[in-house]
Structures are given as structure tokens and as C-alpha cells.
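Q: How would the C-alpha cells look for this protein?
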Amino acid sequence: MRLGALLCGGELLLLDGQLGTGKTTFTQGLAKGMGITDVVSSPTFTLLKEYTSQSRSDTENETQRGLALYHFDLYRLDNPDEIIDLGFEDYFYGSDVCVIEWAAKADLLWPAERLHIRLKMISETERSLLFTAVGQRYYELLRQFHYATTSS
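A: Here is the predicted structure in C-alpha cell form.
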């Protein structure tokens, strides 16, 4: 939730980890932090689900669309080129937030800047998360995230 609250749009978060490590659960918390009230579930069979946060208003008379979360699951993907064939690549360069489960299946397609999150099962109730920032924007995001988690 704390990381989701820091997202402002245009972020690409790549998730990897074995089955049952909590990739979808992580995405649910991220969505909650973004202000998304919909039930977030795994897009394993559809490849993509879209959720939108509550709308934001700049003035009393103007309401803007809230930030969208595009939740991808590449588990059933056979060939990374399918991402391009389906037109998904456009999402990764957009102004909303993309979370990709099983991101390693398409390693060669990701933009130069991104946040990679590796989840690992420690026990039934514990997970370890390894965050790897690629690019200045994501280094700054992790710095803010570290501050938010250590100052509360």
C-alpha cells in the first residue's frame, strides 16, 4: 500500500517469483495504496485486467479520470512476441501504472527504466521482496518508499 501511494503514473513494475509467492497479493496492496476500491484478482486467463483509482478533481468544476492500473499476468504466455502482437507494448510507455506478473518471460521487451520486484517464499506467512531499480526515476521512488516505511 505504501508503494502504491507513491505512484503518480508512468511506472512499470515487473514482478517475478514462483507460484504462490504473493505476486497478486502484492498487486492488491499496491492497488489499495493507489486508491483503487475494486477487487483485484489475477488476470491469468485474460492476460490483462484494468482498474482505475477514484477520480481526482483539480477544481470544483473539473474532474479527471483517476490513475489506471494495468495488471498483466504472463504465466500462460508461450512467446514474448505475443505481447507486441496484442498491442500490449503501448501500455508500458503510457501515463498509467503497469504491473507485470511473470515478467521474466519477456525480459528483452521491457523499457530501459523500470522497477523489478522479486518475491520469494520464506515460510507460509513470510515473503522476502528484492527491489531492483533501473533508472533514476525508480531509484528516487525506492528512496521515497524506504523513507515511508522507516518513518512510520
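The helical segments are 2-6, 23-33, 81-85, 136-150.

The chain has a mean pLDDT of 90.

Upvote if useful.
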